[in-house]
Every structure is written in structure tokens, then in C-alpha cells.
Amino acid sequence: MNKVKEHCSKCGLKYSIEPSFYIGAMYVSYAVGVAVAIAVFVLTLIFGMDLGPGGILLSIVGTLVLTMPYIGAVSKSIWAHFFFKYNPKIATKVSNESRA
């Protein structure tokens, strides 16, 4: 469900620097999860929902469970962007090759 490809199908870039490269994405995932939890809490306050502590906790946990696949994917993308930089020359070359 949350698998990352080994190589780019267009340019052949290897997405994983070392076998455990995406373990660092766990830390990013934690931060994104905390941000989502805070957003849910603030939204319950903004919309004036008087859920009480238990209701707020259940809404946060429910939201985190529903968004878990997206949080994992976004976290891996954020983590990879720390190490892989966009190169316009390669992008132009790959774009031109795919059109031919």
C-alpha cells in the first residue's frame, strides 16, 4: 500500500540511498501526525464543537487512522526531498526522450 519504487522509470534515479533510507521518514511521519492532530483540535475549537476531552481524543485518533496512508506517503516524499534535488537539465532530457 505504501511501497516506494526502487528506480525512476524515466531517468533511472535510484530512490533509496541505503537499505534503511526511509527509516528517517518515521520521524517526519511523527511530525506530520502531530500537525494533523493539532489541526483537528483547532478545527474542533473553531467550529465550536463541545466534544469534551474524550470526544476530541476520539476525533483525533479517528482522523489519524483514516489519513495514515497519506501521512506515510507524504512523509516519505518530504524525507526524500531533503536528499534528492531537482535538476532541470535532467528533467528536460527525460521530457524530450519521452516525446520521441
Summary of the model, kept short:
The chain is mostly helical and 100 residues long. It has one domain (21-99). Helix content is 65%, strand content 0%.
Tags for this model:
100 residues, mainly alpha, 3 helices
Plain-language structure description:
The structure is a single chain. The chain is 65% helix and 0% strand. The protein has helices spanning 24-46, 52-81, 88-99. The protein is elongated, with a radius of gyration of 19 Å.
Instruction: Bin the helical content.
Output: 55-70%
Count of discrete alpha- or pi-helical segments spanning 4 or more residues: 3
- Provide the gyration radius in Å: 19 Å
SSE run: HHH
Secondary structure topology:
Elements: H1 24-46, H2 52-81, H3 88-99
Helix pairs in contact: 1-2
